[in-house]
Design a protein that fits this description.
The structure is a single chain. It is built from 5 helices and 7 strands; from the N terminus they run E-H-H-H-E-E-E-H-E-H-E-E. It is α+β, with helices and mostly antiparallel strands and 170 residues long. It has a single domain, classed as Gcn5-related N-acetyltransferase (GNAT) (Aminopeptidase, 3-Layer(aba) Sandwich), CATH 3.40.630.30. It has a 7-stranded mixed sheet. Helix 1 runs antiparallel to helix 2. The longest helix is centred in the middle third of the chain and has 15 residues. It is globular and about 40 Å long. Keywords: Transferase.
Length: 170
């Protein structure tokens, strides 16, 4: 499969929003299913694209998945510190998994972070759920290391939601 990574076209926002929401829903990553407030955020690609770079993996004219690259701390970042880029909301359609689209999206984010090194970017960070073992293997294979001191809970009222963090120093 010939996978291409490129910036999203506005006509693809709805498609990527559904791929992302479905990936999180069907993988059991949302605690409240369809009523989870984060589901709206996952579907709102237009909002992400307004303040970050949204990339898609495509094969032919089909969107396979996407990721949000946040070049510096700002409205779309969760854990980035000064000098760090952040990668968020990586998702690949179920039928396209295992074909390299996710890894290609991660590599594209790393390449973008490296290109910002002259602007002071020294690393790229991300948050992930404990159960995302396939994603963890990709991150580690590409040189990311765990940063347990930065693990965090996006919903402090729920004790069992701790996101794991990774960093790649450039």
């Amino acid at each position: 499969m010939d996978i291409r990574i490129r910036p999203i076209d506005p006509t693809e926002h709805t498609t990527l929003g559904e791929i992302t929401a479905n990936a999180y829903l069907h993988d059991g990553l949302l605690d409240f299913g369809e009523s989870d407030a984060y589901l709206h955020e996952l579907r709102d690609v237009t909002k992400r694209a307004a303040s970050a770079e949204v990339l898609v993996a495509t094969a032919g004219d089909r969107v396979l998945g996407g990721v949000t690259f946040v070049p510096a701390p700002g409205p779309m970042s969760d854990i980035a510190r000064p000098g760090e880029a952040e990668m968020r909301m990586l998702a690949v359609a179920k039928e396209a998994r295992g074909r390299g689209a996710g890894e290609a999206l991660v590599r594209a984010c790393v390449d973008r972070a490296r290109a910002r090194a002259t602007d002071g970017c020294t690393g790229i960070v991300l948050s992930t759920q404990r159960t995302m073992h396939s994603a963890h293997r990709v991150y580690e294979r590409l040189g990311f290391t765990r940063t347990p001191d930065r693990d965090w809970n996006p919903l402090p009222e729920l004790d069992d939601i701790t996101l794991l963090t990774y960093k790649l120093t450039l």
